[in-house]
Design goal:
The complex is a heteropentamer. By secondary structure, chain B is mainly α. Chain B is built from 14 helices and no strands. Chain B has a domain at about 35-235. Chain B has helices spanning about 5-25, 35-60, 65-85, 85-110, 115-135, 140, 155-175, 180-190, 190-195, 200-225, 235-250, 255-270, 275-290, 305-324. By secondary structure, chain C is of the alpha/beta class. The longest helix of chain C has 20 residues, at about 25-45. Classes of the chains: A alpha/beta, B mainly alpha, C alpha/beta, D mainly alpha, E alpha/beta. The interface of B and D includes residues 121, 136 and 287 of B. Bound molecules: adenosine-5'-triphosphate (2 copies) and magnesium ion (2 copies). The site of one magnesium ion has 4 residues of chain A, from helix 1.
Amino acid sequence: MLEVKDLSVHYGVIEAIRNVSFEVNEGEIVSLIGANGAGKSTILKAISGLHQPSNGEIVYEGTAITKETPKKIVEKGISQVPEGRHIFSGMTVMENLEMGAFLRKDKAEVQNDLNNIFARFPILKERMKQDAATLSGGEQQMVAMGRALMSRPRLLLLDEPSMGLAPILIKEIFHIIEEINQTGTTVLLIEQNAKMALKIANRGYVLETGNVVQTGTGKELLESDVIQKAYLGG
Amino acid sequence: MKLVNKTNIGWLILAIATFLILQLAVSTGLISAYYEITLVTILINVILAVGLNLIIGFSGQFSLGHAGFMAIGAYTAGIISKYFPHYGGLFLGIIGGIILTSIVALIVGVPTLRLKGDYLAIATLGVAEIIRITIVNMQNVTNGAAGLSGIPYLAKWPLVYVFAVLTVLIVVNYTRSSPGRATIAIREDEIAAESMGINTTKYKTIAFVLGAATAAVGGALHASYFSVIRPGDFTFNKSIDILIIVVFGGIGSVTGSIIAAIVLGILNVFLQPFGSLRMIIYALALIVIMIFKPSGLLGNKEFTISGLLHLFGRKSTIKEEGKK
Amino acid sequence: GAGGSTADGDTIKLGAMFEKTGPVSAYGSAESNGVKLAVKEINEAGGVLGKQLEIVEYDTKSDNTEATSIATRLATEDGVVAIVGPATSGAVQAATQPITRAEVPLITPSGTADNLTVTESGEVQPFVFRTSFQDSFQGVALANFATEHLQSEKAVIIGDSSSDYAVGLTDAFKNTYEGEIVAEEYFTQDDTDFSAILTKIQNQDFDVIYLPAYYEQAGLILKQAREMGIEQPILGGDGFSNQALLDLAGIENVTDVYYSAHFSLENEDEQVQTFIDNYTAEYDTAPDAFSALAYDAVYLVAQALEDGGEATPEAVTAALESITDFDGVTGTFSIDENHNPIKSTLIIEVQEGKEASTQEIQP
Amino acid sequence: MDTFIQQMINGLSLGSIYALIALGYTMVYGIIKLINFAHGDIYMVGAFVGYTMINSFGMGFFPALVTAMALSALLGVLIERIAYKPLRNATRIAVLITAIGVSYLLQNGMLYFYGAGVRAFPQVLENKLYSVGGIKVSQIQLMIFGTTFILMILLQFIVQKTKMGKAMRAVSTDASAAQLMGINVDNTISFTFFLGSSLAGAAGVLVGLYYNTIDPMMGVAPGLKAFVAAVLGGIGIIPGAMIGGLTIGIIETMVSAYGNSMIRDAVVYGILILILIIRPAGILGKHVKEKV
Amino acid sequence: MSLLEVKKLTKYFGGLSAVSNVNLELKSNELVGLIGPNGAGKTTLFNLLTGVYQPSEGTIDIENDGKKESVVGKKTYTITDMGFGRTFQNIRLFKDLTVLDNVLIAMHSKSKVGTLKSILRLPSYYASEEKMKQEAIELLKIFSLENKISELAKNLPYGEQRRLEIVRALATKPKVLFLDEPAAGMNPQETADLTALIRQIQKDFKMTILLIEHDMSLVMNVCERIYVLEYGRMIAHGTPEEIKANDQVIKAYLGGE
Ligand SMILES: Nc1ncnc2c1ncn2[C@@H]1O[C@H](COP(=O)(O)OP(=O)(O)OP(=O)(O)O)[C@@H](O)[C@H]1O
Ligand SMILES: Nc1ncnc2c1ncn2[C@@H]1O[C@H](COP(=O)(O)OP(=O)(O)OP(=O)(O)O)[C@@H](O)[C@H]1O
Ligand SMILES: [Mg+2]
Ligand SMILES: [Mg+2]
């Protein structure tokens, strides 16, 4: 479904990632793991069209989207929960969620999806009219997640969705990711919490200072020694 | 202990050398009467811009009222030195201007500096307008809208030069000290600064008052050098002119302000013959420069002698790479 | 310095410095036009002392510091024999010191403050001249006119607090006027809405409005006052003297308006009519007092050049001091010992936008 | 009492002019956080377009108004694309200087081509004067007040309720997240300028007609006043611009009417500062303490 | 007497009570955890303690030289001076300044360097400047940041930024240190390193630490006691073992396995 070939991205003169290649098949959960600064978020930015890669190709369902605008990419069904939440301050929780459905025209369905999201995150329903900027960190994370789902993505890009969440919610989030996946959304997941990420992932890639250094099924990676040491804390 | 360190000596030599070169140029007629005016205008602009940079660039407070403080300095010095037309009178005037301006800045600073961003800009703009209108209305003292003329011409260029160097020295010393760092921290993140134990109001006020005081010096020298001042010289536009120098040089860069004052001063000389086209060219230049150098000439970096060497060093390596 | 070196060249350089951009650019631009027209005419007629005049012109941006800089540039770098301009008193003051040091004469067409040519302590500025009359003369003339011809006893003053011109006229009027001044209201140059002060004075008892202001605001005040139903006569200075006054106020509103003027568009004088025709042909708009005064200033310099017989600043200065019976479009005048023109003012009465009568008042 | 009511009306009509200019100002301001110093000059250009259309092309008032709005809008978009867009990632103050540059350019460009003198705006609408018990209101005054009020409601509706408006707000708080929602940031900002500048153009024609005077520098003072009004009402808050504009208009009038017209502006700024000290985020602004 | 005593602390935001009726006590040299679901009011509690927000009700007292002093109504910088240091949930470093400057700024209020002295550059100024620099570098060494003193804060990797925040808070010489999710965004390895570090500073500096964290591997490892907030109310308090076993906490926060 998504194929990233020899992708290189620069910030000015800094090369954030170099010749990264990986693929995501329809219906999979694929996890990217790696230390801070390895370039994980950069890859997602390149896929969403927020940052132009300097080299390489991104192919989505057979067509190259490397040079497409973010808008076109969203229209094609790719949605992202960005690192650091990036919720819209000055807008209410409700408006934030509605923004997720910006390109959708099927009003009734949108309402339906909104209800589903409130069912998943009941606290958001309570905070519906509150300025999203004043939400707690975890609540904001839920808004960001809900907002991405509102576009009914076919491919969902998640950048550290469990960051700052309470343990019970982390479990819930991973549960939700699996659920979303089962209802037909393909997921590309970035996580610090590699253990949980690899547990639900079909496959995973390990990134180190801009390079893919290891790949395998979630299970294989979980069990590999190097991974155990470097990312799972022994 | 470290009073005589390399950097200080370096700058001292630079300041004296510049002075001697200028002196030579003036006495040989290389700098004619006309270029002397340009020189003094640049020096006064340096004083004004460095002071405003302290407020905007270092404490991060957006002030649009610099012309008001300049006006207080100019009028105080103008009036006093008309009474005592000798250097004693001028210095009395400058000191009086500094004191008066500082008092006004303190009075307006304490309540308004808690305003943020553009709200503060409007408040300071208002203060400057109030100062100007007060001057217009104090007919007996200030001669109202017609302004003061015949102010004794005492601030010859060397004096202005000395004041410019002093101003730069004071501002640089301040910004590169512990209180100065505290001030910069406010610019970076007010809440974090406060959580680090910094009395933000206090340091904002210090920067504001210090900046205002330098504006008073600039105004006083302006009055003495040009002999004529009127309220119309200190409008909002004047504040904008100084702001342009600050931004053009680089917000938070003292050397940037100095370079920008020089560049814009020289640009003005070149543009003068263009008549009414010149403002069009100037406007275009402003736009183009900001588009290509949005952070100003120096960004928030300082021009240093070692940096210059470094730059040349790097350039030469680029060249070598090119050869390969 | 370099001042006198032009005598050897094939042209005589004449400096011009005007407020061509910035807040008072309307006056500076009009004067610049007057200067250019005069120089063109002089050159077409063969020049002065057998040489062509060449204008070296700069824009002061309506900024006084810039005026100092430019005056210095003209006087010391460009080698002009004389400088015409600038339009406002402040700029003239800013230019005085440099031109005095360089000993180059300056003739301001419309710097009207009393202390331009004579300092507060009574010394004559040796190199500053003007072609307009000074604020005190005009203010006194208007005050007397108000009493004698309008029989007014109670006046309201509406003045521009941001312009020294208006302040000068106000002061002179207040010092001379024999009646009572029942109210003083002020506005600034940027204002377009005068309803507050007009509503305020409407209820007061007065028989004349004294309006020392330039035509831009005066026109709007006339319109707003008349539309509001204020019908008392309105008296103003030479700042009214521009065609735009009628356009702005609307012809029907310019009634019972009196103002002092240097020249009148209705003047039958051949010289004046030629000037008006040439100016209109050149710039597609009728000249105003500013352009006329600047035009005269150039001819004044030309005459001084001829009189002095030498294209040097020294000769021009000396000749300017002794000019008598100069015949200009703004009247025939001599320069007095204080470097001011001795000329009479016309007080023009306007009814329904038409000049109804003119009266000459001698100084 | 009559005088007081008349002065109140004077204040309201002056204030509604400030408000009219401030509306476009505050909207642009609210969306891209730029003090668009050129706004006052677009207003000036609008007035000149209207003038030219009526004088040289013999248009009627309404066609001239529409043309002025369209051309101003186009100018606004053009300015944004050329002068502001390259500075998307620069500091706000850098863009502010660019805006000052644009402002100088428009002023001096018009000065160059049209000359510095004032022009009388053709009086194409008959200005009826309504008089009720000694209190006078003119037709244009009512028209300006009405236009301002309707535009305020319209703008508020657009920004708060329409999809475009929501996109505008989203772009204003987080442009990259807005892109992730499928919003075209460039188009949204252009639209903002389109709307804001067309309002400025309309204001130019209306005010030109009302006061009967236009000149290349006419945008400077109202531009500054509109900026002050926008801040006073609360930055980016559309009804705030209206309230800010009216407040300033009324204070100015009242100071002239019952105080000393000589110190009018000083009093206005004094009151302004007091209001800001009491309400640091403007009259309608909520002083939200940043969530830490 | 305890070092910090919080009684009946309440904070309303409009109708919402983000913190309600909270009692909390810290003794000298203690390491205490504060956990609770997202939006429970933990960060708000920190903000109340440090004067960023003013409480709607309740008291906060700190012991100073044997005397009880209230911090309610005081400005944040005064409270910092009285001995409260903190880090922020969303990192708030002085991004465009160097690592060293970040630390020096935090030392400023205790250094008492006068403005006039700095401008005139008296010899004593250089002495105190030098001393501050040395102290700052000492602190940075503890966190292995001494090689990065002239890097800009924003160019540090995330984990190091978190550590720098802690150094900066320590530089204010606090009696009590409030850490708000110091391990957020760190991988397990980095979290383990941080755990050791927190233990060490508590020992070396004899400091009282109150720690907010969602990472149970950190909290349960280092904390002697733990407070649990939910919907602004304190729902539990006890040793890690007690908390782990507390039904209410499991239901609201930990989740069952
Ligand atoms: N806007 C930017 N400008 C310059 N450099 C950047 C920028 N964004 C990221 N980088 C650099 O690119 C590299 C990769 O960053 P990226 O954010 O993709 O890492 P990451 O793997 O997502 O890390 P983390 O786990 O901290 O989120 C880092 O070295 C980072 O410093
Ligand atoms: N300034 C504010 N205005 C309005 N509500 C606020 C404000 N600050 C916090 N809140 C609300 O108070 C509640 C507590 O927020 P707080 O940030 O303290 O939660 P937290 O316990 O730190 O959560 P997390 O673990 O997710 O960071 C939240 O519901 C939040 O929406
Ligand atoms: Mg990342
Ligand atoms: Mg929190």
